[in-house]
Amino acid sequence: MIHTVKANGANIPAIGLGTWDLRDETCEKRIVDALGMGYRHIDTAAMYDNEVAVGNGIRTSDVSRDEVFLTTKVWHDCAGDGPFQRSVEASLQRLELDYVDLVLMHWPDPGTPIAETMRALADVKQRGLTRHIGVSNFTVDLLKEAVSHSSEQLAVNQVEYHPFLDQTAVLAECARHGVALTAYSPLAKGQVFSDPVIGEIARTRGKNAGQIGLRWLVQQEGVIAIPRSSRTDRIAEFIDIDDFALTDDEMRRISSLGSAAGRLVDFDFAPHWD
Q1: CA Rg value for the chain
Q2: Among 13, 136, 205, 228, which is 20 to 30 Å from 41 by CA?
Q3: DSSP assignments along the chain, one per residue
Q4: Which residues contact 52 (CB under 8 A, 6 or more apart)?
Q5: 48 catalytic, yes or no?
Q6: Looking at the 3D structure of the chain, how many domains does it have?
Q7: 188-208: pLDDT as tens digits
Q8: Is the pLDDT of residue 1 over 90?
Q9: Residue 78: which CATH number?
Q10: Structural domain for 66, as ranges
């Protein structure tokens, strides 16, 4: 069973199933499959337009709700005090659940003061709509500001992270505040499967390149990964990484692939990246 990451009161399975771009019956079935394979961490968002299917999948599975760590996220156009809470309430209605385990601000909104967003985040936790709160796509400076304005501890900063993107600065800032880093796009949209360094290590280990990339992530202190696939065989492979450990040299070789130029996810509303 994959280990968990402790972060400011949260206890989060280090491998979760990402659901971006999974829809309807496919989404529901993959969640049932994943929970049957041992996953206990599911990630969704209001913007993904699949919360109904996610909720159905959790209820359809044989796993009880209290065993599943469920994350959802609020889109940046609802960052203000009031719209944020209404977005969480709407997510719970779509999920048909009384609470989620983690609510994240999906992207910082430059038009809304961080202090206002943090008030709204704290409010949904204090009202019992979520057990934990956090942020996503926050830079070092934005994370510092968020922590300074939040009356409740933040558990997670969810950011793009994979072997080709150097996130050393964000990792260090998360560690300073006891915040876990959750890696989205952890396999660099499939790029790990064509990298010769990762491929060589995979052949040596008798694993595939995706498993090596995920092992590299979760072997780092305080790092969680949420790979996504519509394929049942891939989903099974993603969680089958707890029977080996990479050596220090293998970790360094993979880390050396990262740079600021490796970013794959960027938008015109994104912050100025570290």
Answers
A1: 18
A2: 205
A3: ---EEEETTEEEESB-EE-TT--HHHHHHHHHHHHHHT--EEE--GGGT-HHHHHHHHHHSSS-GGG-EEEEEE-GGG-STTHHHHHHHHHHHHHT-S-EEEEEESS--TTS-HHHHHHHHHHHHHTTSEEEEEEES--HHHHHHHHHH-SS-EEEEEEE--TTB--HHHHHHHHHTT-EEEEESTTGGGGGGG-HHHHHHHHHHTS-HHHHHHHHHHTSTTEEE----S-HHHHHHHH--SS----HHHHHHHHTT-BGGG-----TT-----
A4: 94, 95, 96
A5: yes
A6: 1
A7: 999 999 999 999 999 999 999
A8: no
A9: 3.20.20.100
A10: 4-260
Q: Which of 39, 48, 161, 184 is catalytic?
A: 48
Residue 193 lies in a domain: yes
Residue 116: what residue type? E
Q: What is the pLDDT of residues 42-84, one digit of tens each?
A: 999 999 999 999 999 999 999 999 999 999 999 999 999 999 9
| CA quadruple 27, 29, 33, 35: dihedral sign | positive
Would 266 be classed as within a structural domain?
A: no
Q: Residue type at 227? A: P
- Indicate whether 269 belongs to any domain: no
105 in Cβ contact with 73 (< 8 Å): yes
What's the one-letter identity of residue 4? T
pTM confidence score: 0.98
Examine the pLDDT at 220 and tell me if it is beyond 80.
Answer: yes
Instruction: Decide if 195 is inside a domain.
Output: yes
